[in-house]
Amino acid sequence: MEQKSMKQCKICEEWKNEGIYLLISFICSDCEKEILDTDPQDERYQYYIDRMKRSHVSSLLIQ
Amino acid sequence: MKRVWYRIKFFFLTLIIKLKGKPDEIYYIGGSEALPPPLTKEVEKEMLDRVSNGDAEAKSKLIEHNLRLVVYIAKKFENTGIHIEDLISIGSIGLIKAVNTFNPEKNIKLATYASRCIENEILMYLRRNNKRKTEISFDEPLNVDWDGNELLLSDVLGTEENIITKDLDLSVDKNLLKSALSKLSGREKQIMEMRFGLSGNKEQTQKDVAEQLGISQSYISRLEKKIIRRLKREFNKMV
After folding, report:
1. What sequence ranges are listed for the domain HTH cro/C1-type (chain B) (predicted)?
2. Which of A34, A39, B13, B64 has the fewest Cβ atoms nearer than 10 Å?
3. Is the Cβ of B132 closer than 8 Å to some Cβ of chain A?
4. Which domain holds residue B175?
5. How many A/B residue pairs have CB atoms within 8 Å?
6. Is residue B11 part of a domain?
7. Can you tell me the ipTM of this complex?
């Protein structure tokens, strides 16, 4: 049952229970926290942009 | 054709969501007008209350129903050279930050606050990007030879050999000069200070010095040569 409710995070690709949805993309709580702590000036920021692009949310939104 | 492709994509994505069991209704494909509509004031308040109790589902709902803002604001920055997909990703991050940091007790609507956060996020990214454009890496290839070897910027960059000791040498020279000048008579020292702008004075021509001291220019010239010879002797004694 526990296994069934797990979702794959679009950022870290790990299977987690807790997190948020951005349309079809699940973002786990750990990645969400990291995103909140990352500024556009940080090197890591581009990584999140690329991962979010891979989740296809952006392409869906620009229709 | 493009429209048909999106409809096919929509069908499969909806299917995936249903299979994964995401509980909420979905509105989002086929144009930004089909994105989840803004929530009513009452529902938004209920969601915010649930978010404050740690309800991730309510948080997702708040994010999704404000995605129109992301699209609207991202499109305003389309002429900046950043791809619209990037802008939407950045805007989405701004929206996530907005929903997480929104304080319902403050007298501001979530949509207003989120708009500011989204725009701010994009502006900060653009600022970083503009700054980076002016930066050049030491590993920037300047040229490639016939064998494919790259000539890097770091290969041609260099510094003067004495860059470290230059200031020290200058300081030592100044002290030597001061010491040598102290060996001169008052008049000789005055002539050197006037001619070469020592002690913060402005350099003057032999003619100007001669006029001020009431002697001929040729005499100043002879005196100057004599004083310089003497200073050289003093330097040689010191070093």
Report:
1. 205-225
2. A39
3. no
4. 164-236
5. 94
6. no
7. 0.88
